[in-house]
Amino acid sequence: MPTYVFRCAQRCVDVEEIHAMATVPTEVVCPACGASAMRIVGSPALGTGNSPAMRAQDATRATAEAPAVVSSVPGVRRRATPVTTNPLHRKLPRP
Questions:
Q1: Whole-number mean pLDDT of the chain?
Q2: CA-to-CA distance for 38 and 30, rounded, in angstroms?
Q3: Positions of the region Disordered (predicted)?
Q4: Would you kindly state where each structural domain of the chain is located, as residue ranges?
Q5: What are phi and psi of 8, to 5 degrees?
Q6: Ramachandran region of residue 52, left (φ > 0), alpha (ψ -120 to 50) or beta?
């Protein structure tokens, strides 16, 4: 069942109540001041959920808005063994 929000004329704290869509009232009694509180139109709760597909979509959207920043340059990996074993290649200049 959907949650409806009601607000009184004195601007007390909004009242949230759950009603069936067929029997939702247009006004309720404000618990803070006792005046009638009218129903207000709010934004729907779209895109909320805890399914694996929703988590993957949220993670993808988060990387598009705030990409990961590299904090340092990756290290250069050198080979432990020489590329060649020819002794003449040892005399060549190294970069």
A1: 82
A2: 9
A3: 65-95
A4: 3-40
A5: -90, 170
A6: alpha
